[in-house]
Design brief:
heterodimer; A: mainly alpha; 71% helix; 0% strand; globular; B: alpha/beta; Rossmann fold; 5-stranded parallel sheet
Chain lengths: 316, 164
Amino acid sequence: MAVGKMVFALILGSIGTLVLGFLAKWVDRKVTARVQWRVGPPWYQPAVDCIKLMGKETVMPAVAQGTGFLITPLVGMAGACVAVTMLWVMNLELGVGFVGDAIVVMYMFAIPALTTILGAAASGNPHASLGASREMKLLLSYELPLTIALLVAIIHTGGSFRIGQIVGAQQEGSMVFMSISGVLAFLVALLCVQAKLGLIPFDMAEAECEIMAGVYTEYSGPPLAVIFMTRFMLLAALPIFLITIFLGGVQLTGWPVLASLIKFVIILVLITLIRNTNPRLRIDQSLRFFWYMLTPVALLALGLALIGRQYGVGWL
Amino acid sequence: MNWKFWSLKKSLFVYHVNAGACNNCDIEILELLTPAYDVERFGIILVGSPRHADVLLVTGVCTRQVKKRLQELYLQTAKPCVVMCIGACALAQGIFAEAYHVGPCVDEVIREVDPNAIIAYVPGCPPKPEAMIMAVVKTWQKLDELAAAEPKPVAPALPEVAGA
């Protein structure tokens, strides 16, 4: 692609995902409120929260490492922007892309978590450093099963590491989800996404009743707004990632728009319901959950997918 | 209207400070989050860190031990920040007035570090949730006044060019 077109896609993709993220966060809060028999906030609430934080003072803690403290939210947001733009472009134009772009997207999605750790460590707050240590362990625990789940989808769609190929093969044939290994891998990836988003039961990095706001304790004003916006973008982007890998991709023309929207909302509500019906796990419990329960399930799915591919059995 | 004050009104993040309360006011505050009152309708939520807070919700008589901590907490918040004194104790020390462990009143403690602090008072022992929502409404009115009083940015006058 030409450079101009790339810049255009980056700006449009980021802003579009941000708007979608505001709406997704509203759906999340509204569903939570309805579960608790409340009314819930109006639809523009997440956007107003960010606007308000933009107009507030930025407090610099005396012991913080200023540059690292202030620049890490921006780097995290940049990572999220690049990841969502790649996802959108490769969903909408299947021919574009390069070998291994699925891996690059995975890396980009890990950047917000890494910058969160760095920013929390730079803020010089004991609560934040506790949160950073938990976030680090959480990152180590969910990346392995998520990668194996991605491998299952890749095996189902012809063994290419290109997102365009993964989506194209699903749109021509059947979705990865329409097989036993696909369902297993989807469930594993859904729980990993829950941890990536830092939602209950995996929100121990910011557990507000134990360690205040955890990794975000020292942030205020515009940097906090940037962190919020990054999280809202991820809340929109990770369901899109799941749809891309397991549910046949996002399309923006004709009737498939409706199908894509329904898939998006179902995944979002599923994530919200998981978050509303579970208690918070301890960090050692979640590590054990991901390594000793989800990784074997993901490996089982991988084995089934390999067997199915070897003997030409589509439903395995 | 000024966007800063408009968005502040629409989204108040509340940090709850217990400055030596008997828990009665705290329970009434939690009542605000339940389905009967549900203040999240107005964008009001509880946050875990004073850095995120727009409102410091102070309950209880300010004891001598807590005085320094309360001032520190107020200084830690990002301004503009509103202080709400909930209950008779936070207002005027209630039945604990002149007791040995009691420091100055909450508003005096806050004004020591910031003479221009916005402070709302909610009387009652404990105050009803309706009274607290009324306090939020009055805080909104106060913010409106502040927004109206804030000087508009004026374009700097061009220097006069001699002979023009």
